[in-house]
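User: Here's a structure from my thesis project, written as structure tokens. My advisor, Dr. K., wants to see whether a designed sequence matches the one we expressed. Can you design one independently, without my sequence as a hint?
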């Protein structure tokens, strides 16, 4: 297959994904260099899809159930079901960032393995954001990025279930304030 054909098919595939995302959610692309020019360093083959409505995501993820009643939803809210709450939490943060006018970008590397959930720009600085539904004090990827990009990053955030506080140069923001970013 010729390179021009492959490039055309790749472009058509991503246009289709963008169209689908506008209907149901948003696509986040990987920025391979979070220190400058986030859009200049996009890896379009690595992306995440987020639902526009986190409540709809919760209900759609349980379509095999005959009936979803209040007990199931309370189980999710109070961490009693043992499901991947992190997925719902990250989707909620994505929804809040989009509503605040941000494009969804993230940073992922395989060697060493690391992933920063979201990147936003404030002026000329990149602000990394980690979404943590539990154990918000453990953020090895964020720590590694801070070390690697020393002095090149703006404010650093962990959106979590704890109260607002600052510690070690990182702002811990309660999830209900994510739309303020």
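Assistant: Designed independently from the structure alone:
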């Amino acid at each position: 297959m010729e390179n021009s054909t492959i490039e055309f098919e790749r472009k058509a595939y991503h246009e289709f994904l963008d169209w689908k995302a506008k209907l149901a959610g948003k696509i986040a692309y990987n920025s391979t260099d979070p220190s400058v020019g986030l859009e200049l360093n996009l890896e379009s083959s690595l992306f995440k899809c987020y639902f526009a409505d986190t409540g709809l995501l919760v209900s759609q993820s349980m379509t095999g159930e005959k009936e979803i009643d209040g007990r199931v939803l309370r189980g999710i809210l109070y961490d009693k079901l043992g499901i991947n709450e992190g997925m719902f939490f990250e989707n909620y943060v994505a929804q809040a960032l989009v509503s605040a006018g941000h494009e969804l970008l993230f940073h992922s590397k395989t060697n060493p393995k690391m992933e920063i959930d979201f990147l936003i720009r404030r002026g000329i600085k990149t602000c990394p954001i980690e979404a943590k539904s539990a154990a918000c004090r453990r953020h090895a990827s964020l720590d590694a990025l801070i070390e690697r990009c020393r002095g090149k990053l703006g404010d650093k955030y962990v959106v979590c279930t704890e109260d607002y506080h600052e510690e070690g140069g990182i702002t811990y923001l309660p999830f209900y304030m994510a739309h303020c970013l």
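When you compare it with your expressed construct, this may help: Helices lie at 3-24, 54-60, 70-77, 85-99, 140-148.
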